[in-house]
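Quick question about two entries, pasted in order.
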Amino acid sequence: KQWYQRRVRECNINAQLQAIEAGEPVTEDIAGEFGMKTIYTMTGFFSLVGLLRLYCLLGDYHLALSCIQHVAFKDKDMMALVPACQITANYYAGFAYFMSRK
C-alpha cells in the first residue's frame, strides 16, 4: 500500500490527470521532476489502478473510488495501452460502484 501511495505522490499523477481533464498542458510545475518522465507517469497511473484493486480487496469501496476519481475511462487513455490494466480497472471500478450502491 505504501509503495503505491509513494509512486502516486512522487509523480503527482492526480494533478496531471486533473490538468488533462481541464484541457491544460502538463508542465513541470504540475507534474514535478519525476512526473515529466513517461516511465514515472505510467508507474503512477498503474499505481492508482493497484490502489483501486487493493482497496476493493480490503472492502473499502469508497476509498477505492476516491483514488480513481480523476481517471477517465475512455479508449484513448493511458489504460488503453495495456489491455490487462484496462480490464482490471473497469472490473474493480464496476465492482466498487456496485458494492457502494452507486
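Here is the second entry:
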Amino acid sequence: MHYKSDPKPVRTSIVHLFEWRWTDVADECERYLAPNGFAGVQVSPPNENLVIMTPWRPWWERYQPISYKLCSRSGNENEFRDMVTRCNNVGINIFVDAVINHMCGSGAGSGHRGTCESYFNAGVRYFPAVPYFTFDFNDRICKTPSGDIENYSDPIQVRNCRLSGLVDLAQSREDVRSKIAGYMNHLIDLGVAGFRIDASKHIWPKDINAILSKVNNLNTRWFTKGSRPFIYQEVIDLGGEGVQSSEYFRNGRVTEFRYGMQLGTVLHKWNGEKMANLKSLGENWSLMPSDKAIVFVDNHDNQRGHGAGGASILTFWNPRLYKMAVGFMLAHPYGFTRIISSYRWPRDIQHGKDLNDWVGPPSNSDGTIKPVTINPDGSCGNGWVCEHRWTQIRNMVIFRNVVHRQPITNWWDNNNNQIAFGREAKGFIVFNNDDRNLSISLPTGLPAGIYCDVISGQKEGNLCTGIQIHIAASGVGDFQINSQAEDPFIAIHVEAKL
C-alpha cells in the first residue's frame, strides 16, 4: 500500500494579539491557536519606541520608533526569537507590524527615553541607534507651512509631510531603504512570515516596492525555498481622497477599511440597510478585489474611534452584533480575514469622543504589561478580552477553514434581515437580525445527517453541546431562530456532523 501523508491543514485567518507580551503569544500559539486552526498572529511593533509618560504609556507610543532594536514593552530580542520559533514549530506564522513611514514625534526632544534607552534628538532628526540623520527625512521636500499633512486630497503632501507631527522618513533615499530592509531581514532571519506595513498610505508605493525588492525570502527552516513574505499594507481609503488603495496592489494585499464600516452599517440597520443586501457583497460595493483585501470587523484603531469608520464600527463592547458580524465575515469568501484580540479600557465618551482612547494595555505601575491569564472557562483575565477565544468566533474560524475555496450556494433571504447561504457541500449558515422569529425549511446543499450547530455549542466526541440540525436526503433542513436569542445565528459544517 502507498500511504500519502495528510495535506497541510488549511488555515485562513490571522489574529492580532494587540499589545500582548511575546511570552504570552508563544504560549497561545501552542495551547490555543494551533489546535483551533488559526493561520497566524499579527504582533505589535517589536522595535524600540519612545516612552511616553503624558498620557501615561498610551498604546500609540509603539507607533513612534526610536530604533530597530528588538526591545519593547512586549519583550526583548531573545523573547521575540523564542516566540517566533515556538509559533512556527506548531504551524502558526508571525506577522510583524512594521512602522517604517516615520520615527517619533518632532517635538519629542532628546535624551534616552526609548524602550532600550537609545539616545535620540528628534529636533535635529538624529537617531544614532539606526542610524538616521537629518538628510534621511523629508523636511526639505514637504511644501506645507506647518510641515505636517494639511490636505488629504493632495497625494504629494500625504507622502512627503509629517503624519500628525511624526518625523517623516525619506524612503526615496537608498540608505533609508537599506536600513528599513535590514530591519525586515533581521526579522525574517528570526523566522517572521510577513509584515503589516503601517501607514503605507503615507509612503510612495514605488518606495515600498523598492524596499521589498531588498527583503529576503523567508527562512527555509520553516518555509519552502523561495517563499516570499506575506505583505499587507495599511491604507485607509474610504473614497474621495488623493490616495487610492489600488496604487498599492503591486506590493501585496491592502487593508479594506470600507468592509467593517459597511458591515457595521448593515447590522445596525442604519441608512435603510438590511442583511439581504449582503448578497452582492464584494467589488459591487466598491470594495477592492477579494484577492487584494485584508478584511476585519474592527481593528486596534477604529475600535477606539481612531483611523476610519466612525460610529458604525462594531466591537466587543456590542457583543451580540459583533459576533454576528465576525460570523458573517468568516462565513463569506471575500478577502483574507483578520480578527482582533483586545483589552478593556475605561471608556469616557463625551460629545461622541472617547477621552480615554489613548489608554494602553493592562499594565503594572512600573509600565510592564500584565500577563494574559486564562480562566478555568477558557476566557482571559487581567483585563484582556480575547475575542478570538469566544466560542462562536473560534468555531467560525474553523468553519472558514472547512469551507475554504467553496463558492456561495443556496442563498436565501426574506428581503429583510433574515439570510442564509451555503458554501457548496461543506457548510451552511443562517442569520436572524429581524425583530421577528425565523422558522423555515431551507435547501442547504449538505449531505444528509445530523449536524451540530457550532454557534450555540459544538461537537464533542459523538455528542453535541448545541442545537442539532437534521438534514434530510434532499439536503433540506429546518431552522428556528428566536429574534431574542443571545446569538441569533446557526452555522453547520461537514466536520461538525454527528
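Reply: The mean pLDDT is 97. DSSP finds eight helices and 24 strands in the chain. Hope that helps.
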